[in-house]
Amino acid sequence: MQVTFPLERDELGWPPASAEKLWARRTAVTDEVELDNIPLFARGVAKGDRVGIDPAADGGWIFREVIAESGHSTVRIIVPDDIRVDAVVDHVVALGCEVERSHVDILVTVDIPPDVAYRSVTGWLDAQEAAEVLQYEEGAIASHQRR
Known about the structure:
Elements: E1 2-6, E2 19-26, E3 32-35, E4 50-55, E5 61-68, E6 73-78, H1 85-94, E7 98-101, E8 107-112, H2 118-130, E9 135-140
Parallel strand pairs: 1-5
Antiparallel strand pairs: 1-2, 2-3, 3-4, 4-5, 6-8, 6-9, 7-8
């Protein structure tokens, strides 16, 4: 099943959509699901989080709240030089993360699982950002990984 996450756009029109649909698996609780993919744009949620849902007018489901975090964290990376995207992806994967590519070629979303040191990933990202290779933002940070 999919759950719709309404998105708020900034003054520049980012993100490039008004909503994002994430795959989810049902749990034993009727109005609760577990997210099954990495959010590209939705903030405050990560892969594996259990979230509350409500019925949507179109017959689907809409996000209500986070019930329990999974321990995963999400960061989004913009690599302005699209030639470098694959190298960035390869490095993040080598650090133990999973990535999801977007329809926006220069955007990569990263899942940092609970067993990967958050600072090892963001330390490398900070260095790459300082070198003007990329920019990144934190979408959701698990409580055990917060700075």
